[in-house]
Amino acid sequence: MAEDFNIRNNNWDPLYPYYLFHADILWEVIDSFSLELSIPINLVPTYYTDNTQESNFILNLMFLRIGSGEFNNHIILPELQSLSDHASLSVSITLEEEFIQEKKQWLIKNSNEEKEFVNKLRCRLGSVETSNITSQKTLERVTQEFTSIAEDLWNKYLKLVNITKRSKAWWIEEYNKDLSTYHISRSKTDWTKYKKTVKLAKRTFFDSRIQEIASFNKRS
Questions:
Q1: Nearest to 87 by CA among 75, 95, 103
Q2: How far apart are CA 129 and CA 96, in angstroms?
Q3: pLDDT in tens, 126-165
Q4: How far is CA 112 from CA 13, 107, 119, 150, 157, in A?
Q5: Coil, helix or strand at residue 81
Q6: What would the DSSP string read from start to end of 112-155?
Q7: Global confidence as pTM
């Protein structure tokens, strides 16, 4: 984040002797973004006044993430000032290659595949001998057998699907309409309505799934 914040302060301008309370407000905002004041490589003024009775000073600041390669590595470019009374700030940002997952493993809810998966999982897990677990070694063997059975069946029945904004199991098309309404109106009321609808949908969906699991395990 870089801007002319129009605040003089001795935290960033060593030639200015005062600390102004406006800086506290700026620090709160910056802290909310997990940023910190970046110290330029060349600490020179960023504002150049036409008043010969005043000294040039620092108004333009840059805030970056601590630990990033850019932090404390930006520069002030007074030579590019041109007709402006402010100097430009410049920083080089390294763009690292990022892996973006485009597909995910999925078993469609209430599909024939899901029913087959659950039935075979129940059958195969039930065939595992668990009546004589008398040692940690035996417990680990049984646990590993459970894991292998689940992984084997999952890999057999899973489907690879593209990840989209509607990939969440609880998402329905109605939420897209509510979200679009907010994007158009930018109304706080529409945003609140959308958030409440999504929250209720998540709760309903996951309560249902928890009940299914509890019923399956006969612990409801």
A1: 75
A2: 50
A3: 898 888 888 999 999 999 999 999 999 988 888 776 555 5
A4: 69, 10, 11, 18, 10
A5: coil
A6: HHHHHHHHHHHHHHHTS--TT--SHHHHHHHHHHHHHHHHHHHH
A7: 0.42
